[in-house]
Amino acid sequence: MMSHENYDPCFPDQPVVDLYIPVWANLPAFRSKPAFIWANDAGPTSYSSLTYGELNSSIHIISCKLLSSLKKTDTVVVLCSPGLELVEIIFGCQRAGLLSVPIVPPHPSFSNENYHHLIRVLSQTNPKAAIAHSSYIAKVQKYLSSPSHNKRLAELLKGLHWIPTDALKRAEPKDLKLVKSGGSYDGCKADEVYLIQYTSGATAIPKPVLVTAGSAAHNVRVARKAYDLHPQSMIVSWLPQYHDCGLMFLLLTVVSGATSVLTSPTTFVTRPRIWLELITEFRATCTPVPSFALPLAVKRGGVNEGMSSINLSGMKNLIIINEPIYKASIDEFLVWFTPFGLNPSSISPSYGLAENCTFVSTAWRASFPDGLPSHKKLLPSARLANSYAQDYEEEEIDIMVVDEESHEPVEDGVEGEIWVSSPSNASGYLGHPSLTREVFHGRLRNRVGRCFVRTGDRGVVIGEERYLYVMGRSSDIIRTEKGQEIHPHYIETSAYNCSSNLLRGGCLAAFKIGRTIALVAEMRRHESDVSVLRRLCENIREVLEQEKVEIDLVVLVKSGSVPKTTSGKIQRWAAKSYLMEGKMRIIMKMEFGIYGNVSSSSMPRIGSDDKRGAVDGEKKAVLSFASNAQARPSLLSLL
């Protein structure tokens, strides 16, 4: 193991992340050290790696090749599958001074209407070129020659200059310009936008966030200090590399001089045990995962199949990246994996969002003898005590909980909107000036000072240590006729816990339609017994009544019907839209009236245009259902 006794955690302090790479590549101890390792699900021989020296050379070749057909500041969309090649291209675009837009490449057949996000991206960002593998480009060209192509998509695709990835990595003397020692840096400067990353789409249609190279560098420097990462750190990640946390950990690896072992989200979904195996084999010290991955690892991680080879004792930061973070799921994971060396103090609940590059905060500390507290079943994602503020003072980060109407800070113990002010704040949304002013230029009432990003997340500060709990999203809050404010994840979690043998975890969506509180839940398997389905709906209602929540409509749907983001977050707004437009694959729906009357319908009796009134008080909400419509599942819809 390489010693880092002479490593100063504040050095090298570079204005952009790309400038760290040649620093490491020119140090003998780092030149041959792996920066990134790619793991397929085919055993130990399937690993491939990029050393810091190889990464620096490859990035230089790619940037020179790109500039042979493009000019600085041009926008380029990156349509590459996860892997080392994607890592090289992301850094290569920055060194070339290009504005990159990496997105999940839709299947080039563009069937099942999987091209909507691509049309959005191409229309909004107006790229000059697209980077993709030559085989992908060939399939796109085949699609364009098809008479059945979508006209709008075809028009956008034909306007692109297509650049094959295999051509970018072929070094040709005429394309290469030797870098002079000590010469000026010609890539993206700190104040230049180098990346457009789209929001996840958890609360609304994904929006393009403008990220400068300097704000990204600041963000990962803050994260490096928060998680105490250094050259001996070994990171394992299967997160999508296109945006948010998956992309941040590529940058965080380089800033720390660490090594990252990467694999794809689909590999993890297919075989969750690979995550545990990679942690074991590479003695990983850090891994970021969404909270839903923990119960998945318990159920499908091979716990009952003999785990003598699993060793999690090296783990220092098991970073939980999405909110809300339920204490029960963490406790269950610890019960299963503490016998395999997992230290409970490694749990690092964290908070972030695309509008702040990604990272905002973590509640983790190198040592907390009493463990993390909880509030309303949740773990905290930050600590805003004085000691915490001192830690972050030099980074100029400020987190506040603010009343959404008055724009004044709320007292501890009162829920409000989380506001964040930091040099990590992104520049705004591309093509949305009004929304940019509203979200990125929040100001406290009657105070002169910095601008805040309004996160749209609800939070509360609790206790003397001032732990911050992320309670949910403001736009998802369900407000009842009695004045209650309910975060829908509490409804979803309670419903799942009462019938976990029949329902799929993380695949329930609660929302309000008019005055009707509705819950859509995916079934784990096909169930044709109407009495079982009816009893399931009734059980859900009874459990929620105990929680003082009156549910009006329960809809049981087939697997893959509830829409999610690529990181597995429920899109409640989309689920509501699908339900109202008849795009859910319904098995049964049950409506509960205020006088206790119940109407139910099972799949065999539902037509393609079944319309029934869901009675709630004096108002009727008329819903349309379609039992045979095709849902549009996301990449991780199998979770």
Automatic annotation (TrEMBL):
Domain AMP-binding enzyme C-terminal: 488-587
Entry keyword Cytoplasm: no
Pfam families assigned to the protein according to its UniProt record, in alphabetical order: AMP-binding (PF00501), AMP-dom_DIP2-like (PF23024)
GO biological process: fatty acid metabolic process; lipid biosynthetic process
Keywords: Fatty acid metabolism, Lipid metabolism
Annotated InterPro entries: AMP-bd_C (IPR025110), AMP-bd_C_sf (IPR045851), AMP-dep_synth/lig_dom (IPR000873), ANL_N_sf (IPR042099), FAAL/FAAC (IPR040097)
Residue ranges of the TM segments: none
Residues of the AMP-dependent synthetase/ligase domain: 30-430
CDD domains (UniProt xref): FAAL
Presence of keyword Lipid metabolism: yes
Protein name: AMP-dependent synthetase/ligase
Organism: Dillenia turbinata
